[in-house]
Specification:
The protein is built from 15 helices and seven strands. The chain is an alpha/beta fold. The strands form two sheets. Strands 2-3-4-1-5 form a five-stranded parallel sheet, with helices on both faces. α7 packs parallel to α9. The relative contact order is 0.09.
Length: about 325
């Protein structure tokens, strides 16, 4: 069922849930909604495991051990395995063997972001499960986009012309780009017009490079690489240029905000200050400058042809910055 159908109908949740589709924002919200229904907040630390599938040394063993553990002072135990779409064939088979034997009373949630109708090898978990699992489809269609737009406007306390809502609902931009557009335009106050959208919207650009940069500076290198790999799949040689450029731009803003006295963003970037300033405080001026200079060097070696493997450069750059910017525990 579609994401909003899941929210509205509140179907029963049994042993296996598969979050499929294409949109990472709705996928995260679906995971949050499942956990909200299954476990009270104060029970999650002892009864919920969230595993990044590609990062696990043996995902079959890790998920199997977690899902077979007994709940502690709760009715059930929940195990979430994220990024299953990035697993190789054998780990996917190992994890599916676990999914077919979930103990009664516990719940395994698999985030496997393939479109439900897409034919891939290995087969997406949703197709393997059929009706044996609760399947939540995060693929946005026009109805999903429209509801998302209206909810975002309501959250922002903003209004928009009906034509603006229709344009965003009927377009091809992902929900992350739509959310960014509305958050920026809402700062101007008043009703968002078609002229506002056409003048200011970032949705005419591919937002994935900026999503990659945001994931890096937020300390989520695995998510950043997943986005980068998606771009490289479509453009093996050219993807590194927008990725490095977006990363340099993001760190330039953070460097400005991290300067003594707090810095001041250019007017066209001030709508992002609320999100970026806490990151700037956390990483500090020295690390912000390092990130900017590293990204600029990466951009230069790609543009000048000094590197034969742009994808490897982005991987190394992301890993280096991920290690330096990781939130302290």
């Amino acid at each position: 069922m579609k994401y909003y159908e899941f929210l509205d109908k509140q179907p029963k949740i049994d042993g296996l849930v598969i979050v499929e589709g294409e949109d990472p924002i709705l996928a995260q919200r679906a995971l949050d909604a499942v956990l909200d229904r299954l476990l009270p907040e104060d029970m999650r630390a002892l009864n919920c495991d969230v595993i990044d599938g590609p990062e696990a040394e043996s995902i079959g063993r890790a998920a199997g051990d977690a899902i077979n553990a007994m709940p502690f002072l709760a009715e059930r135990r929940v195990v979430v395995v994220r990024n299953c779409q990035r697993l190789r064939a054998q780990p996917r088979r190992d994890l599916w063997a676990v999914a077919e034997n979930v103990p009664a009373g516990n719940t395994l949630v698999l985030e496997d972001l393939f479109p439900p109708a897409k034919k891939t090898k290995p087969e997406p978990y949703g197709q393997l499960a059929g009706r044996k699992a609760l399947r939540i489809d995060t693929t946005p269609n026009a109805d999903v986009r429209e509801r998302f737009v209206r909810e975002t406007l309501e959250r922002l306390g903003a209004k928009a012309q009906p034509r603006v809502i229709a344009m965003l609902s009927d377009g091809e931009s992902d929900l992350g780009a739509i959310q960014n557009d509305l958050e920026k335009l809402a700062l101007g106050g008043g009703t968002i017009t078609v002229a506002d959208l056409e003048r200011e919207s970032l949705s005419v650009e591919d937002p994935k490079a900026w999503q990659y940069a945001a994931a890096v500076v937020e300390g989520r290198p695995d998510d950043a690489l997943a986005i980068a790999f998606d771009l490289f799949a479509n453009d093996p040689r050219g993807a590194a240029i927008p990725l490095a450029s977006a990363l340099a731009g993001e760190f330039a803003l953070l460097w400005e905000l991290a300067r003594p006295g707090g810095g001041d963003l250019p007017p066209r970037h001030r709508w992002r200050e609320r999100a970026l300033r806490p990151i700037a405080r956390r990483i500090g001026e020295r690390r912000a400058r390092y990130g900017y200079e590293a990204a600029v060097r990466g951009f230069e070696v790609v543009v000048t042809g000094q590197i034969d493997d742009p994808r490897a450069m982005i991987e190394l750059l992301t890993a280096d910055l991920g290690a330096r910017l990781a939130p302290s525990r």
